[in-house]
Known about the structure:
FAD/NAD(P)-binding domain; alpha/beta; five-stranded parallel beta sheet; seven-stranded mixed beta sheet
Amino acid sequence: MIFDLIIIGGGPAGYLGAERAGHAGLNVALIEERSLGGVCLNEGCIPTKTLLYSAKLYDGVAKGSKYGVSAEGLTIDHESVIKRKDKVVRTLVAGVKSQMKANKVTVFDARGVITGKTNEGYTVKAGDEVLTGKKLLITTGSVPAVPPIPGLKEGLDSGFVQTSREILDLKTVPNALCVIGGGVIGLELASYFCSIGTKVTVVEMLDHIAGENDQELVALLKADFEKRGIIFHLESRVTGIEQNGVRFEHQGESKLVEADKVLLSIGRRANTANLGLDSIGVNVERGAIPVDDKMRTNQPGVYAAGDVTGFSMLAHTAYREAEVAVSDILGQHDRMRYDAIPAVLYTNPELASVGETEDSAKRKGLNCAVVKLPMRFSGRYLAENEGGNGIMKLIVDKGSQRVLGLQALSNYASEFIITAGTYIEMGLTLSQIKKIVFPHPTVAEIIREAVFAYTE
């Protein structure tokens, strides 16, 4: 079977790339060995947000007396939360399947392995089928990083240690959970389990949590977590998984965190193993596939997008990268830019960022100013957040007076961060932004407040 385009991997980059290419009239094959939607839809973005919304509702009612609302006998049924999560996932996966059918994409439920190249194109084995594609798009995503920690393999095999895949199907609530890793996935799940009554401890090797986010906002978020009862061990190296917990070392002292379950969440690595990339000479560096701004690999007609490139492991980045790859395949001018990729931590409150942070701007020696405002400057934020201590930072280039970045610790931050992303992408100046009308009252109005608060 010969196709115009074969896509290996049915996650965000894969299925959206297939949709775009099929809609444009290409004969497309999409190969996925697990479930359409990939990690994001089945065991990442969507499932975790479903759980976090249930926790948010529960937390809101629990604190309702601040807003004149009270309830008795408040409970949260974790098993029902998981069932609803499964329903949401099934609905969205069905939607992806429908889009594949509507755009005449041929889906193969199999593992895709590249086997070589002929005069007709690249050959790929999909289960027992042998396909030929004039072009290839590799979108195999990423897998959890599993370090060589003593006892870890045994813990994973027994179920005592779980990755984000398994823990999202956990039917019973652990009394105590140890999270290895203070990044986005670990913190979001720590937040959920803390809300439903689990004693949560986070062990992080770095001296801070939440990765490269603005450290002032991260410190506020950490303090909020600690008030809720989450315990953090920073600058701590895990040395072993024991039968009843996690052994780690801090400043030369060995300590043990006892737990019923352990969540391994130290990041992800590009999924490039055993794909047959060497059969056609695709370059792999540090386990990932390097690409140019057209998403081209070193081999003609072979593209890669999403986590497999190892660059920006976010579902929305993967969407855009797939669109750029398909545009190039279609002969259309397009290029990938990374200056305005939003990132969100979907805890309560949310932490969102786009562009430069105050820290990154300083490291790069940029001539910029920082406008910092309490979120209480937004009327709607104040109305909905009794005692909230959210902050927003706007990073402005002093010379051009263009927005370089924005960070916010606030409810709805995930929804309004794109506003600043648009400013960065379009290169708007503060004088141009001042003429844009915001709906009132909205939390997003804090951006307008910051723009008018800027002084040279």
